[in-house]
Amino acid sequence: MFELYNSTEFETKYTYTQMDLGAAWSAEKTDFRLWAPTADSVQVRLYKNGNADTQDLLETLDMTQDVHGTWIASKSGDLNGIYYTYLVQRDGTEVEACDPYARTTGVNGQRAMILDLNSTNPEGWENDKDPNYDKDITDAVIYELHVRDLSMSEHSGIQNKGKFLGLAETGTKNLEGLSTGLDYIKNLGVTHIHLLPVYDYGFTDESLPLPQYNWGYDPVNFNTPEGSFSTDPYHGEIRVAEMKQMIKTLHDNGLSVVMDVVYNHVYDGEAFCFNQIVPGYFSRINADGVWSDGSICGNDTASERNMVHKYIVDSVCYWADEYHIDGFRFDLVGLIDVKTINAITSEVHKKHPNVIFYGEGWDMPTELTKPCELTIQPNSPKTPAFSFFNDTIRDLLRGNIQKDTAPGYVAGAPTPKEVLNACFMGMPAWAANPYQCINYVSCHDNHTLFDRIALTAPEASVADRIRMNRLAAAFSILSQGVPFFHAGEEMLRTKPDGKGGFDENSYRAPDEVNQFCWENLGKPEYQKTIEYYRGLIAFRKAHDILRLKYRKDVFNCVEMIPCRDSQVVVYRVVGNAQDIFLIFNAGTESVSISLPEGNWNIMIQDDIAGTDALSTVNGSVDVTPISATVLTQEKA
Question: What are phi and psi of 352, to 5 degrees?
Fold first, then answer.
């Protein structure tokens, strides 16, 4: 059967292109359409509620075969709030499955729900839009956040702990009266909040009062919000309404929303509803029945098949249209084909030209069902509307990610300057243009930046480790490309494992490991580092020559200044009205650097960053150990 799916005959005969798959509600009737080309018969089962453990079947509707492998049925009357599944008979067996196109579900995602989506819109939704709609991707400063981490601490001052609505609360403070939650993020100056998965995922039992912690890289229902983030997972409309309210509040506070999407695999390949309805079609399975596992999650998505391609494109468009999502981060996008990614960016940009796209372009082994090109970093010229995580700058600054104790540039390790320079220019070897580089030194994966520094510089003082943290931030935020950092990096976030070490993969660790330590917010070292990040972000925003999009502009504006000191790199960025001179010193001794002619204003020095001049110098400038110094010069 798996080989049959790969045939041109099957793909031609059973490719359905219209946009009406799923349950289309109106007050007068609901129309159902399901793609199930291998089924012998299909029925729709209607239920009173969304809990699959209850025996409350209301009615069974027979579906009729229609074009290109689809089945249709219609039911008169207002079915808003009714739950449903599909009963598929094939070769003498039957399966009951959720609708792959479900817009929302009951508890734990086993029954789809018919929904009047307009009824879930918050007040003012018709006028809601991306607050950064007129900006380029290089204007973005992205803050990666798990919904639950922000609010679970008893010191957060947030009432809706672990919920969508917790991120929508304003005016929250810790016991010292310092702003937490949304107000804290807004004050940082970031432009985009990147939310770890918020679609319906597995492992976490939504029926529990305190569901298990999970990052969410376990897709179950791609088009449905996760129920554990809602205040009521039993009523499907609640999770939809509360997620929209969160997005609306973030927009009202000047923050764009990026959604982390995981189309490269599913939580359970055999149990996934699409594969239940059309056995194995969604996944890469060879003729011997062996599942490809480049994702290291048990299955890889066959995005190169026509109806999987369509499903992924439809899904991303749906989130952009219905939820006003402003950006998408693709997990392991190197397992998704170039054609699908280009179709996504093209279709979404027809209505939403502001939406940004980026992902993990790692080259992972996978067994394709047909020849295609994959969305890996070296293919960046072939995906011009898509950007990639820059692991080159990450490994240079903090150390090789495969070796926990290997130091990077900020810890004093010898670093090839030509590679470091290329990263500062936003042009590592694989990148077509700077706007395709997402520059970062920490994300949810692996150790936090501060923990990594502790592992790579065990003899360094805490004060010097903080300096290393600041130096890494300065280089990554001020480089050409798009700055990105893991939430809490700016407050020296740490994840102790309880055994004297640090948790590098806290995807299912308890809240005690993952939650923000708001009780530490008032400590001087926290406040100083937060202020430094805030200053770096403000400085970047104030200078468009730090946000160049294209290779040709970088070559025209960015100059590498020779420096004999192996631990010091120096750059000059030339603008029409102003020049910027940047010095990064990873050494443990101060250095004196000669300046170009004229007076220069010091804007960033030691532990201070911002848009106000600290002093004016000429001739040379002293740069303290393990720090960045940045100066500007106005042109006559």
Answer: -130, 75
